[in-house]
Amino acid sequence: MLDLKSTDKRVQWNLSTMLKRYILAPVLMLFLITSTGADDGWQAGVAKQNITPDEPMWMAGYGSRDRPSQGKLTDLWAKALVLQDASGNQAVLITLDLVGIDRELATAITDQIQTVHQLDRSQIAICCSHTHTGPALKKNLAPLHYLIVDKDQQQKIAAYEERLQQQILVAVGDAFAKRQSAKLSWGSGTASFATNRRENRPEGKVAQWRSEGKLKGPVDHDVPVLAVADPQGKLVSVVFGYACHATVLGVYSWSGDYPGFACAALEESYPDSIAMFWAGCGADQNPLPRRTVELARHYGRRLATAVETVLMTIQMQQLAPTLSSRFREIDLPLGPLPSREQIEANARSKNKWEAARATMLLEQLDRGETLAQTYPYAVGSWTLGDDIDMVFLGGEVVVDYALRLKSELRGKQSWIAGYANDVMAYIPSRRVLQEGGYEGGTSMVYYGLPAHWSPEVERHIVDEVHRQMDESTRGE
Q1: Chain centroid, CA 273 distance in Å
Q2: Are 242 and 282 in contact (CB under 8 A)?
């Protein structure tokens, strides 16, 4: 919960103002909706908060980081879209310009939202863009900075997390307060810069192979688009996704990477709207070539153009004003756990990230805690109108999941988001797990989990998605 007595002037809250803003405002809006008969269709409200750190601090995403941030290329944003259907069912989509968010922080945020706005957990989805030029958080990718960051930087990370929680709550509260009658429509575009990074090595050959039509491996080039307009047809928000790592840049300046540039381009084209990006199952997809600001802007423009092509040249489909939501944490199994002796040996490793993970695990054992054989893996889903099933999967999910689920969930558009609610590790398919490599195994070190995933993880996740879709069909 929020510490309303914080001594940090930047995050002090006036309790009476907060009560008026986040409790009385939704009640007043509900009165207005009821009295004007606007419950015949969709209601929507959208808002955003600037979450760019205001001082140099440690950045997330790359183990090679050796110093705090220096300046910024773009601001970072927390954005919130509140949807309400004709029956009063609500959902809140939150997008964050962050590499990821851990389960503990996500729970703290969603608990606050549930309490203030009387929502169920299934009605809240948090999607991270996975930019690698955003701030570090305490427990996401913790081994990357656990043994490196000094006490001053640790305090800055903790203070940033506190402010972040409050800013997200502000964005959500503002979105609730701004609800108005809305028209929702959808379409789908294409962008082709994502490349399967496992199948196309070395990176330096990608431009040649692309020109020769020789790129290999599965990809997902779909760009799903949800348009939210006011009753006069003016765009209020556009929500879009793409399955590709936000790793064009490795600089020390704050940046939303290509998704941030895409959102900025769309908001420039539609000045009164808020553009929101969700990352698809792009854990094994990279924007190639990369590593320059010019390329990040270029890919951002290409993605924005794909969205604008849908908005301007395609007959978008209207969404019926019905909404349902589901959420469950399943016990996702890990493989064989290491012994204490193995962990102690790893703590002496010359690999600083392996040593950091081992140190963290030993501290856990020394507190009397056991290593868990499973992880509480978050799976959520929304059904929008008669057309869209949107699935929210935790972790860095490889493209196989999107391709499989799109194939199996027939009858509706299937929009599959990764990096949602809790980014605890890479989520390999059975194929990728068997092949091994970074996504299939060695990446677990950087997330701090004690072992590789079991070969059964794909089955568990896909079964849960089908279970939730069956519940949606039965109206549960």
Answers
A1: 20
A2: yes
- Segments of the chain with pLDDT less than 70: 1-40, 475-476
3-state secondary structure of 304: helix
- Give yes or no for a contact between 25 and 66, defined as CB atoms under 8 angstroms apart: no
Residue 285 is encoded by which pair of tokens? 């997809």
pTM, two decimals, is 0.90
And the tokens for 24?
A: 């009385």
Write the DSSP symbol of residue 121.
G
- The structure tokens 């706005």 sit at 117
| Helix 457-474 / helix 399-408 crossing angle, nearest 10 deg | 40
Residues 6+ apart with CB under 8 A from 50: 75, 76, 77, 167
Q: How far, in Å, CA of 288 to CA of 200, rounded?
A: 10
CA distance readout (Å), 416 to 6, 275, 280, 403: 39, 18, 6, 9
pLDDT digits (tens, 9 = 90+) for 5-31: 333 433 333 333 343 344 333 333 333
Residue 125 dihedral angles phi and psi, to the nearest 5°: -130, 130
User: Using only C-alpha atoms, what is the Rg of the chain?
Assistant: 22
